[in-house]
């Protein structure tokens, strides 16, 4: 097996060993632990520089789905104070796959909404592996409209394989809930910032992914379909997953070049799961700068720029050769 044929989980084994040693040192009473941690982080950077050129789109998908990556509740715990989660869509019930509420961020009240996958097997089942039902999207919209009423900015954290495709979800209006969110969010008269922190799966992500600024973590992806789903539909063969991942152009640099996202948030060497604190610092820096800039715009300008942003996605020119 060549290095490029290995999964990312195989490639990162030596980095995870160093991370475990760092975790042990952080909990120890070793007076020289800071120097030792610094040396270990330097070793991680060196190993990452060797691994990075080998990474394929499939590897990036594996990083985005890594079970040790921070999830929405981890970001909220690091970035906000006094976060209060609100529940229910006032129609059918609550959806644990989406966390929504208000918290204090850098001295201001902000509405935060994000997918939550769950860390343990029990949590993943309870949160439906981060796949929302219609009531999750209707809950999200309810919180956004409350934010608009009180003139609070909205921040969404996107990390889902997609909307739940079950029969009951369809019976309760899954497609209508997503479509209605797209229409209403596009007209919210408050700043809306979207951050893809892991998987950005299809309409399940887009239903809370309309905003003034869309940012992606460096090793996340944002796509109309997963590479496995694309391979199954187009090639009817799971051996075509790598080819599908290459052709979908769903990685952050591709989407930045195509004008679909606005900023790429750097991750620490090894990925966001290797150093949560540094990841939180990067997200905090970019989010703070973005909210400051958006708050300076009057609401009519905000809405017009949001409208033009989405109108320009997918526009291209066809030139005839002479």
| Residue share in helix | 40-55%
Rg from alpha-carbon coordinates: 20 Å
Largest sheet, if any? 8 strands, mixed
How many domain regions?
2
Number of helices: 15
The SS-based structural class is alpha/beta
Distance between the termini: 48 Å
What would CATH call the architecture of the largest domain?
A: Alpha-Beta Complex
Query: What CATH first level of the largest domain would be assigned?
Result: Alpha Beta
CATH topology of the largest domain: 2-enoyl-CoA Hydratase, Chain A, domain 1
Inertia-based shape: globular
Low-confidence runs of at least 5 consecutive residues: none
Instruction: Give the overall average pLDDT.
Output: 92
For the record, what is the CATH homologous superfamily label of the largest domain?
Answer: 2-enoyl-CoA Hydratase, Chain A, domain 1
Number of strands: 8
Beta content comes to 15-25%
Give, in order, the helices and strands. HHHHHEEEHHEHHEHEEHHHEHH
How are the elements arranged and paired?
Elements (H helix, E strand, L loop, with lengths): L7 H4 L1 H14 L6 H19 L5 H8 L7 H8 L1 E5 L12 E8 L2 E8 L5 H6 L7 H16 L4 E7 L6 H5 L2 H12 L6 E10 H5 L6 E5 L3 E3 L3 H9 L5 H8 L3 H6 L5 E3 L10 H20 L3 H13 L11
Helix pairs in contact: 2-3, 7-9, 11-12
Describe this structure in words.
- The protein is an alpha/beta fold and 322 residues long.
- It has two domains: 7-54; 62-311, Alpha-Beta Complex (2-enoyl-CoA Hydratase, Chain A, domain 1), CATH 3.90.226.
- It is built from 15 helices and eight strands.
- It has helices at 8-11, 13-26, 33-51, 57-64, 72-79, 121-126, 134-149, 167-171, 174-185, 202-206, 227-235, 241-248, 252-257, 276-295, 299-311, and strands at 81-85, 98-105, 108-115, 154-160, 192-201, 213-217, 221-223, 263-265.
- Strands 1, 2, 3, 4, 5, 6, 7 and 8 form an eight-stranded mixed sheet that branches.
- Helix 7 (134-149) packs parallel to helix 9 and helix 11 (227-235) packs across helix 12 (241-248).
- The radius of gyration is 20 Å and the shape is globular.
- The termini are far apart.
- The mean pLDDT is 92.
């Amino acid at each position: 097996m060549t290095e490029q044929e290995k999964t990312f989980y195989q490639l990162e084994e030596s980095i995870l060993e160093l991370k475990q040693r760092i975790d042990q040192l952080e909990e120890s009473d070793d007076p020289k632990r800071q120097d030792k941690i610094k040396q270990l982080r330097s070793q991680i950077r060196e190993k990452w520089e060797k691994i990075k050129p080998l990474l394929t789109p499939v590897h990036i998908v594996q990083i985005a789905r890594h079970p040790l990556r921070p999830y929405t509740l981890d970001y909220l715990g690091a970035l906000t104070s006094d976060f209060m989660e609100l529940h229910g869509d006032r129609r059918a019930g609550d959806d644990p796959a989406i966390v929504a509420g208000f918290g204090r961020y850098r001295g201001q009240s902000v509405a935060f909404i994000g997918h939550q996958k769950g860390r343990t097997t029990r949590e993943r089942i309870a949160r439906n592996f981060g796949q929302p039902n219609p009531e999750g999207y209707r809950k999200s919209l309810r919180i956004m409209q409350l934010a608009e009423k009180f003139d609070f900015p909205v921040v969404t954290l996107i990390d889902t394989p997609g909307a739940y495709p079950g029969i009951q979800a369809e019976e309760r209006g899954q497609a209508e809930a997503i479509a209605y969110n797209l229409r209403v969010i596009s007209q919210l008269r408050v700043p809306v910032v979207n951050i893809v922190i892991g998987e950005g799966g299809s309409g399940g992500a887009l239903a809370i992914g309309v905003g003034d600024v869309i940012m992606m973590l460096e090793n996340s992806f944002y796509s109309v379909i997963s590479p496995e789903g694309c391979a199954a539909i187009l090639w009817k063969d799971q051996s075509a997953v790598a080819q599908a991942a290459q052709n979908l152009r769903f990685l952050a640099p591709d989407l930045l070049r195509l004008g679909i996202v606005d900023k790429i948030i750097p991750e620490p060497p090894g990925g966001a799961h290797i150093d949560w604190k540094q990841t939180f610092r990067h997200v905090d820096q970019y989010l703070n700068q973005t909210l400051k800039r958006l708050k300076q715009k009057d609401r009519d300008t905000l809405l017009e720029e949001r409208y033009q942003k989405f109108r320009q996605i997918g526009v291209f020119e066809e030139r005839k050769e002479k």
